[in-house]
Amino acid sequence: MIDFNTLREIAGAALISGALCAIFFVALSLRRWRTRCLALESSVAAMRREMETLASISLRTRRRVKRIEHEYSSVADRVDSLEQRGSAASFDQAIDSARRGTDPGSLTQQFGLSRVEADLVTRLHGSKRTA
């Protein structure tokens, strides 16, 4: 027959074996979680670098767009001016006015010519001044 001390020793050995198995599986699980956490941290760091790169590209693109908008903002005004000007008849009228002695500022206002165009019409067709 098995005495009480033997049963107690067997139960203790079984309990210790179970505890060691539990500790082994917990340690294994912990190692897997650490590996996964490291992989996620690495992934987050890579995503952060990509986001910084995208932010930099976005900033440069925004600056380029603003520069282009600034450089070509006068184009819409110029197109409006050309559309208001109408046909070549306004040039003919501006030439006639220049021949009658109208100054470039008035040609700009009356016929929608640019300052350079008004100066050119005045120089080419304006009344001849003698000194």
Concise structural overview:
With 131 residues, the protein is mainly α. It contains five helices and no strands.
Describe how the helices and strands are arranged.
Layout: H1 4-71, H2 73-85, H3 89-99, H4 104-111, H5 115-125
Tell me what you see in this structure:
It is a single chain. The chain has 131 residues and is an all-alpha fold. The chain folds into two domains: 1-71; 74-125, no CATH class. It is built from five helices and no strands. The chain is rod-shaped. The protein starts with a helix and ends in a 6-residue tail after the last helix. The mean pLDDT is 87.
Separation of the first and last Cα atoms: 146 Å
**What is the makeup of the main sheet?**
none
Instruction: Report the count of strand segments.
Output: 0
> Helix- and strand-based class?
mainly alpha
Mean pLDDT: 87
Q: What's the structural domain tally?
A: 2
Please compute the radius of gyration using only Cα atoms: 44 Å
Helix content class = over 70%
Shape: rod-shaped
Keywords:
single chain, 131 residues, mainly alpha, 2 domains, 0% strand
